[in-house]
Amino acid sequence: MTPQLEIQLIASVTAAACALVGAFLVLRKTALLSDAISHAILPGIVLAFFHTENLNSPLLLVAAAVTGVLTVGAIEALGRTRLVKQDAAIALVFPALFSIGVVLISRYASGVHLDIDAVLLGDPAFSWIQRFEVGGWDLGPQSLWLMGTVLVLVAAFVGLFYKELKISTFDAALAGALGLAPAAVHYALMTLVSVVAVGAFDVVGSILVVGLMIAPPAAAWLLTDRLPVLLGLSVALGVASAVSGYWMARLFDVSIAGAMAVMAGVLFALCFAFAPHRGLVAQARRRARQRVAFAERMLLVHLLHHEHTPEADRECRVSHLQEHLHWAPALASRAVRAAERGGAVRRSGDRLALTDDGRTAAQRAMVG
Amino acid sequence: MIELDYTLRTVALGAAVLGLSSGSLGAFAVLRGQSLLGDAISHAALPGVALAFLLTASKAPLVLVVGAGLAGWVGTLCVSAIVERSRVPYDAALGIVLSVFFGLGMVLLTYIQAQPDASQAGLDTFLFGQAAALVGRDVVTMAVLGAVALVAMLVFWKEFKILLFDPDFAASQGFPVRALDVGLTTLLVVAIVIGLQTVGVVLMSALIVAPAAAARQWTDRLWGVVALAGLFGALSGAAGALLSSATARIPTGPTIVLVATAVVGVSLLLAPGRGLVAAWALGIRNRRVLRVAGTLEDLYTLALAHEDVHYPHPAATLQTMTARPEAVGPTLDRLQKQGLVEPRDDAWALTPRGLAEARRLARTRADEHDPAHLGVEVEGPTP
C-alpha cells in the first residue's frame, strides 16, 4: 500500500468511528460533551504517556477512558449542585483539565514527542510512519490498527447494545422503566467517546475530533428519520469528509485534518441547504407553494364574492387583482395560472370567471 | 531588570484588561444560558485572523482582531441559522461551527505557511495564546476595545437587563429584541477577541464563564454579578500572568484559566447562602431542629398516655420511636440545656415549658396537615 492510500484509510476509519459514536451524542443532545471529553482527557493521556513513553500504548486508551468518564461525572456532579447551569459546568470543567494537561506537558515533557500542537491539531500526514511489525513482517501502520480496533469496538458496542442505545436515546424514562439502565448506557457511551477521542487525537487532533463526531451525524439527521439509516449515512458522510478532505489538502498543500473538518462542514452545509423535505431549498419551495395555494383560494373566494354583482366586470379582471388584494404582479399571475391549471377559473381576455369546480372550491375554502 | 519589569507589567496589565472585559460581558452570556457560545466564537475567530492577514498582509493587532471579530460574529450567525432553520439542536450547531471554522483556520494558516513570501509567525500565537509576546500597543488595543464594549454595555444596561430576564416582555414593550440580542452577542465577540492573543482560542471560553459562575454565587443582583465577574476576571488575569512568569515553563493562558477555576471553586464552596459549605451547615442545623422537635413530640405523645403529662420515660423507649436512635441521647442533652426536659428516675420528663413547647409544635403540625386553618378549632388533647 502506498502512504497516500494508508493515510486515507486511517483518516476514513477514524472518521467512521467518530461518526458512529457522534450520532448518538447528537441525537441525545449532548454533542458538546465530545468537545469537553476530547479536551479533558489530555491530563490522563499525558500521565499515561509519562508512564509508558509511547504514544501508541493501549494504556493511553485506558487512561483516556477513565479520565473521560471522570470528566462527565464531574460535569454532572457540578450541574447537580444547581449552583451553575449544565452548559456552564461543561465550560468550567474541561478548560481546567485541559490547562492541567498543558501545564504538565510544558513543564515536564518539553523535547519529547508530545507537544500541544500535536495533541490539539494532529496530523494524518505522519500517521502512517509508525509501522506495526510482527516478526519482521510489516502489517501496516500502527494508527490503522489502533483506529481499526477502536472502530470494531464501537461497532460491536452499537451492535450488541443497539436496543438499549436506541430506547435510552429517544426515551430515557422508558428505558429506565424497562430496566435498561440508561445511566449505565450513558457512561458506556461516554467511555467510548473518550476512547475514540484519544485514538483520533493523534490523527486529527482534539478539536477536529469534535467536528467529525458532530457534523456528519447532524447532516445525516437532516436526511433521514430512521436510526439505522442515520448511522449508515453518518459513517458514509464521515468517510466522504475524510477522503475529500485529504484530496483538498493535497490540492492546496494545506493541513489534512483541517481540510477534513472543512469538508465535513461543506457536506453539512449541502445537506442543510438541499436535503429533501428539510433543506432550506425544500423549505422555501414548500412556503412558496403554500403561498400560491393560499392566494389561489383567496382568488376563488374573491371571484365568488363578486359573481353576478354589478361591479363584477371590474372586480374580476386580472389587472384589478393587484390593486384590490394588494398582490405583487408575480404572485397574482401565479395564482391565476394555478387556478386556471386546476380548472377552477376560465379566462376570456382579461376577464376571469369561476367554473363549477371553482365555485365548489371557493365555497369549501370559505367554510373550512 | 527594568526591561523585565516593564514586560511583566505589560503582560499583567493586558491580562487584567482581558479578564475585566471577558468577565463582565461573559456574565450576560452565562446568565442567558449561552456559556458554550463563547467556546464556539473563540474557535470561529481563527480563520478571521488568517484571512485578515492574507488580505492585508499586516500583523497589526487591530487588523487581526477585527478579522477575528468578524469571523466570530459570522460563526454566531451560522449557529442561529442552523438552529432556526433545521432540527439540529443548539449544542450540535455550536459544535459544528466550532470545529469547522477552526478547521478552516488551520487550513488557512497552513496555506499561509506554504506561501514563499509570507511568514505566519505570530499568527499561531492565537491558537494557544502567548502572553509573553504582548507589547504595549497590544495592551492599548485591548484596553480601547474593552472600554468601548464596557461603555456600550452600560449605555444599553436597561435594555440588556430586560432582554436577559424577560425577552417576551421586552418584545411586547417594543424593544428591538433581535437587535439587542445581536448587540449583546457582538459585545461578547469583542470580549473574546481581546483575549485571543493572551490565552488563545482553546482556553478563551473559560474566561467568559468562570468569573461569571464565581460571581453568581455571591450575589443575586445583576449589577453585582457583572461587577464582581469583572473584578474576578481582572484578578485572575493579573494573578495568572504573574504566577506564570514567576515559575519556569508554565504557559500564561492555562495558568490564568486555573486561577479563574480556583476562584470558582472557592466561590462554590464558601459563598454565603448559596455555597456548598453553607448549604451543608444549613442541612445539619435543619436536621438537628427536626430531631429536637421530634423527640419532644415523641415524649409528649408518650406522656399523653398517662394521668401525668410530666410522666418520665426512659431514653430507650424514645429510641424505638425514631429512625436514628443514636441521636436521641445528644438530642435529650440539648433539650435539657434548653430547660425543656429533665431527668427523673433514670428517665426523661417534660418540664412545664417543654410541655408548652410540645403543645405548640403539635398545634403547628395539626395546622399543616389538617383543615384546621379553615376555621375548625383543633382542641389539643388535655390531661
TrEMBL record, chain A:
InterPro entries membership: ABC_BtuC-like (IPR037294), ABC_TroCD (IPR001626), WH-like_DNA-bd_sf (IPR036388), WH_DNA-bd_sf (IPR036390)
BP term (GO), one: response to zinc ion
Keyword Transmembrane attributed: yes
UniProt keywords, alphabetically: Cell membrane, Membrane, Transmembrane, Transmembrane helix, Transport
Cellular compartments annotated: Cell membrane
Annotated GO CC locations: ATP-binding cassette (ABC) transporter complex
Taxonomic placement: Bacteria, Pseudomonadati, Rhodothermota, Rhodothermia, Rhodothermales
Topology within the bilayer: Multi-pass membrane protein
UniProt main location, coarse: membrane
Keyword Cell membrane: yes
Residue ranges of the TM segments: 6-27, 32-52, 58-78, 90-109, 144-162, 169-189, 195-215, 227-248, 254-275
Protein name per Swiss-Prot or TrEMBL: Zinc ABC transporter permease
Family: Belongs to the ABC-3 integral membrane protein family.
From TrEMBL, chain B:
GO cellular component: ATP-binding cassette (ABC) transporter complex
Highest taxon above the source species: Bacteria
Topology class, membrane: Multi-pass membrane protein
Pfam family, one: ABC-3
Compositional bias per record (Basic and acidic residues), positions renumbered to this chain: 362-372
Cell location: Cell membrane
Region (Disordered) location: 362-383
Primary subcellular site in the record, as a coarse category: membrane
Official protein name in the record: ABC transporter
Organism: Rubrivirga marina
